[in-house]
Amino acid sequence: MESSELVTCNTTDKLREQLIEGKSLNAFEHICTVNENNVATVKGDTRRNMRLNHLWHRATFVIIIFGDDDHLLIQKRSNQKDYFPSSYDPTPGGVVEFGESYKENVKRELLEEMNINIEKNPHKRLFSFKYENDIVRCWGDLWEVKYKGLLKDIRLQESEVEEVLHLSISAVKNMILNNRDDWMPDGLYALELYLQYLHDIKFERNLIGVDFDSYKLRPKIEAVFFDCDDCLYFDNWNVASQLTNKIDEWCMNHGLKSGEAYQLYKKYGTALRGLITEGYLPNCEQAIDKYLEEVHDIPIHSLMKQDVELRSMLLNMNPSIPKYIFTASVRHHAQRCLEALGIQDLFIDIIDVKACDLATKHSKEAFLAAMKIGNVTNPQACILLDDSISNIDAAHSVGWRSVLVGSIARDCKSKITSQFAEHQVERIHDLPTVYPEWFNTD
Description:
CATH architecture of the largest domain: 3-Layer(aba) Sandwich
Strand order of the largest sheet: 12-11-10-13-14-15
Number of domains: 2
Radius of gyration: 28 Å
């Protein structure tokens, strides 16, 4: 439902009249107003002025767990409320008063509205978040309280709460699905953030760099980019070694010493770019194509075999998520690898070094080119699966998400990891263990 519709449905003429006249519930309560960056204003303002003038303010949102960890206490708001009266609230809480901390507000609101004393129940702060629509602008603070008391001990503040429901998370989701208009939109957003947070914790997602003072929903994945060599398959770097030897052989045939190709790779990101930059290879399509064909002329089909497990995993992946090969190599080499593995029909396209205008995957340009080919505009909607820490770092620099595949470096055989990867898996086949939401569960 569009935010403009929310105004029609919930900000009734009667309530607006009550706000203007100062007759709405707690109209002159002195509240904590803030700027858009959650910095408190010097004097605060009244709840009435906050509603009428669409002011930024602070509010608390509380997940109340009762019984099993997947069962919540849900409020139905009183019809006297000035904001979404008679609506369901999955995250009870309230507007923070002037001079009041988030924790003090959580403690006061739950005690007043439901007779729940958080000091007698396990509780913790999870994160803050920013929420805005045509009716409300708030900086919310999400808390989790595990209520250990009895339902009969809950006493409702009638002016604030009409009833409390004890529901499983799945039942709440079904109710929302059937009639989203019955629910508070900011409460729904807070619940979505909470479920994302739980999912990340459950699957041990790397949360380094996540700002828990401004927590956000991640966008839906619009494209997954798979590296090819040493990622889709792993053969103890046999293919990679043969490619390195081919490049070294080509370079020695054109006046360079053994090992200089690797030095060019380290300096320029690819030997190809180094050869062009230092004048060993003409920067023309014919010469480049001939070079790429010669250095990739290895017997791929005799070096690897079909991977039935990999094919099954890819086929089980949600078909609505586009899959691309994103390689620093050349298209015909990647195509041979896919054919040998038996997965050539499972990707939309191959994005190779030529498609990226010879830019190395260590560079921003390659990732921007891949986004353009994949028709994705939001970097956070892209995810890279790669065995190279340098590529993972480059992906992070342009806002991509990533998974590091493998745990041993090719050159020194030491353990590798990346602070920027959301996950690290030993094999590409392990993807369902860290992203089960991408796969069919039937």
